[in-house]
Amino acid sequence: MKAWQDKVRRVTPYTPGEQPNKASMIKLNTNENPYPPAPGVRRILDSFDEDRLRLYPDPAATSLVAALADRYGVGRDQVFVGVGSDDVLAMAFLTFFNSDKPIFFPDITYSFYPVWADLYRIPYETKALREDFSIRAEDYYPDNGGVIFPNPNAPTSRYESLSLIRDVLDHNQDVVVIIDEAYIDFAGESALSLVAEYDNLLVVQTFSKSRSMAGMRIGYAIGQPDLIRALNDVKYSFNSYTMNQTSLAIGVEAVRDEAYFRRTLDMICATREAAKASFTELGFTFPEPSANFIFVTHPDYEAAELFKALREKDIYVRYFDKPVINRYLRVTIGTDEQMAALFAFLKSYMKKG
Amino acid sequence: MKAWQDKVRRVTPYTPGEQPNKASMIKLNTNENPYPPAPGVRRILDSFDEDRLRLYPDPAATSLVAALADRYGVGRDQVFVGVGSDDVLAMAFLTFFNSDKPIFFPDITYSFYPVWADLYRIPYETKALREDFSIRAEDYYPDNGGVIFPNPNAPTSRYESLSLIRDVLDHNQDVVVIIDEAYIDFAGESALSLVAEYDNLLVVQTFSKSRSMAGMRIGYAIGQPDLIRALNDVKYSFNSYTMNQTSLAIGVEAVRDEAYFRRTLDMICATREAAKASFTELGFTFPEPSANFIFVTHPDYEAAELFKALREKDIYVRYFDKPVINRYLRVTIGTDEQMAALFAFLKSYMKKG
Questions:
Q1: What CATH class has B15-37+259-352?
Q2: For residues A293 and A27, what is the distance between their CA atoms, to the nearest angstrom?
């Protein structure tokens, strides 16, 4: 090893999920939306003045912040935007989790949490979910350096009620509590309704799922102005200009088209209901899904085996080779046609087996 | 102060440069390119399939990495891309400057260096430039935790020869040395020619200046594979998907059009030569400019006064209210027309004075 290598930050590298790219494939592995973004996006691309690309974007992302503030009925000083919710969450870890005490999050959850904690040398403790994958509020009562969990949780798709979140907040007034709502639009009520009441609550959402824009990398956080100011101070100390000109223009358009947003959400939720019935018919079980994916297990088939069989047919779902969840497959809700192809294959495969 | 605020990372917030946005203004304050991006960018926007936006981008940014590797004659495992060179540099600070020893950089330089050092709690020492703003190689000989400087330097516009860089590298084999070449295309030979020889050299460049794309946020680093691997490990631990679908498509197109790139570079360099003559005629002096800006001072006029007078006429240049450089203005090279308007105003203003 060379001397300069001593000074290199060692991390356990995060391996991004597989992004296969075949015309014929059925891609149900990364919780992308099966429907295109709002139709106005085409108009934005067509009318976009490319000369603007030579200019720095607005560092405060004012247009997008304003569109989100209006949409969610909060002040413009209550919205922070970033390059996908991963950027927003990474900034939030760096900004808010600066204690010697461990932060708490569930043992089965978004796999990036321990990676960010490792990157920024933040101590952490994971809290076991109940057998039904629900979160035990009491686990989050002891003294800690901060709390974060997704709602609905990933990869379980389970939604926790606002009363649980309120309970966690009431027992954690001295730390920042982050609710990662990447999938909330497919679920129940958002914790945004608690932001006015709790000045230590940060709610993080994304354009990647319900707004069909994983490819644009837009995420945001909403909280009281003190939290947002602290996030912006750190963001401006990292990279002042994170949101490029196209993200700003396209992002604003996506927020504006509420009707399209509702329509595609309804379609995905309807397909999810049908998928629940089809999985049940085939003998699968799953926690009640509240996201755009369903977390299924079968008593007679190994998840790894099904994953491999599907993959050979160019049907991609997500398999996690980790304790407990290695008996499950996470299946993104696609179009009705994609789901029909999935179930047709499963039916024929399981008949043979 | 509330208890949760104890855990918030305190930083001295970086204030991004002013981004005025008036139709009539002459914007010579943030070193943007006065010419639009490569004409192919229009075609990319027109033919861009918006349905792709629902999919995550390629986390490895393979298409853009390949285009840059081909352009610069290096391996694909030698190129790292990020959201502007600020993102690349911030990642490089986090990745490579992990020593208890201070990193070294010039006292007059890119104002983000101390901000990143502060953000990541990296000790640093600044080294005074000579009176002519040149870098003293010997200052970088003592034991340190890493070295970084821009070449050409900002805001001085001064270019250092490769022999100085080689000298610094020869005396710093045990740390990573970063040469920040945001403006190199307007200057002399790039340190890229030294990458094969020094495995601890990282060269950082950007699309924001010479490629007319400040608005797209694309930066990159080139170095030997070990350095790039370490950067990617940290990047994947922060945000796997930093480059959005439009950045990738537009970025590749900009790299391809070498003829347009050369033509606009030549135009800016020609305008710079004319600007040197005009500034000299008006009694200004400046270090020899090697970037797309010129750093001027006048024996009879306060820089702050000229800055204010220009601003009132909607001509924006950059003024730094800091010791030594507060006698200077940093003036971006615009189009010939923009420079003519600047000089017409200065002539009439200085006649009155």
A1: alpha beta
A2: 12
Domain A3-37+259-352: which CATH class? alpha beta
Q: Based on C-alpha coordinates, what's the Rg of chain A?
A: 21
A293 HSE (CA, 13 A, CB side):
27
* Contact state of A215 with B52 under an 8 Å Cβ cutoff: yes
Across the A:B interface, residue pairs with CB atoms under 8 Å apart total 268
Give Cβ neighbours of residue A146 (< 8 Å, ≥ 6 apart). Answer: A96, A97, A99, A103, A104, A175, A176, A177, A178, B7
Domain map (residue ranges) of chain B? 15-37+259-352, 40-256
State the smallest CA–CA distance between residue A135 and chain B in angstroms: 23
- Burial tier of A79 (Cβ tally within 10 Å: 0-12, 13-18, 19+): buried
Cis peptide before A102 (omega within 30 of 0): no
User: Would you call B215 and A239 a contact, using CB atoms and an 8 Å cutoff?
Assistant: no
Tell me the ipTM for this assembly.
Answer: 0.96
Best CA proximity match to A112, nearest among B258, B240, B268, B96:
B240
What pTM does this model have? 0.96
H or E element at residue A127: strand A124-127
Structure tokens at B273: 């030569």
Residues on chain A touching B117 (C-beta within 8 angstroms)? none
The three-class DSSP label of residue B241 is coil
Do domains A3-37+259-352 and A40-257 share one topology? The answer is: no
CB contact under 8 A, A14 and B96: no
Burial grade of A259 (CB within 10 A; 0-12, 13-18, 19 or more): exposed
**Residues in A touching B42 (Cβ below 8 Å):** 50
- B240 contact A CB<8A: yes
What distance in Å separates the CA atoms of residue A202 and residue A92, rounded to the nearest whole number? 9
Whole-number Å distance between alpha carbons of B285 and A179: 56
* B109: nearest Cα among B295, B288, B332: B295
Interface probe with B: pick from A26, A147, A238, A318, most Cβ of B within 10 Å: A238
Cα A288 to Cα A294: distance, rounded to the nearest angstrom: 8
What are the pLDDT tens digits along chain A (353 aa)?
A: 788 888 898 888 777 767 788 888 999 999 999 999 999 999 999 999 999 999 999 999 999 999 999 999 999 999 999 999 999 999 999 999 999 999 999 999 999 999 999 999 999 999 999 999 999 999 999 999 999 999 999 999 999 999 999 999 999 999 999 999 999 999 999 999 999 999 999 999 999 999 999 999 999 999 999 999 999 999 999 999 999 999 999 999 999 999 999 999 999 999 999 999 999 999 999 999 999 999 999 999 999 999 999 999 999 999 999 999 999 999 999 999 999 999 999 999 998 75
CATH for the stretch A40-257: 3.40.640.10
Q: Which residue has the tokens 């935007």?
A: A81
Token pair of A146, please? 């901060």
User: What type of residue sits at position A322?
Assistant: K
> According to CATH, what is the number of the domain B40-256?
3.40.640.10
- H or E element: which one contains A79? strand A79-82
Q: Is A99 on the interface with B (CB under 8 A)?
A: yes
- Check B174 against A5: CB less than 8 A apart: no
Percent helix, strand and coil across chain B, each rounded to 5? 45, 15, 45
